Amino acid sequence: MAQLKNRQMQIPNGLRFLQPETGWQSPRQASFDVIVRALIAHRRSRPDLVQKHNWSLDYDMVAAEVDAFNARLCERHGWLNYINTPNTEMLPPPKSKAPSLQERKLLDAAAGRAKKIWTGVRTISDFIASGAPTVDQKLAEQRAAICAACPHNGKGDFTSWFTAPAAGAIKRQIEAMQERKITTSQDDKLGTCDICYCAMRVKVHFPIEFIAAHTSGEVMDEFRKVPHCWVHKEIDAVE
Asked: What pTM does this model have?
């Protein structure tokens, strides 16, 4: 099986990795080491799939997966100068070096985003499954109006924010809410909150107690930096 000649060298268009089960893609132009660590972080955020697909979380084994993925790309595109094949001398892979400050920030951002996305998906799923009542329409409309005018109201469809599996899950969740006639007059203006990565046309209907139980302290700190945000105002009012 082909292997990369040098894991510290970028291949044409950059080293990369795709986790097909979730649609996760590695950060652009990241080093080999950062891709491996970001992939491990992504997998740790999905323990259900780690068990289902027997994903490895061991650094060396994940590194071998990333190496093989990129070596196959090189073979497919004819970039043979970047790989060793079974017919050429195999060089030992260089030892990984500690990621730089910039790479650590990139890694942390990738892991944090993945965690927020799937936390948001599970939050909506938990609410729908609970059968709990929504807030009254007047409050939902007030919340929706605030979100519609908020600079953190991310534009674009779900595929521009999430991987295909997450986008599909959120789309189905919204459709389930719409079937229950749970909407607001602002729905066409509501996108994805770039703080919590929740679909706001759904979240504005949740009881604040439910939101508080599913919001981490880190995300709450980010909400509190936005003076007009209804989430932290309502949570602080009941605590």
From this structure: 0.49
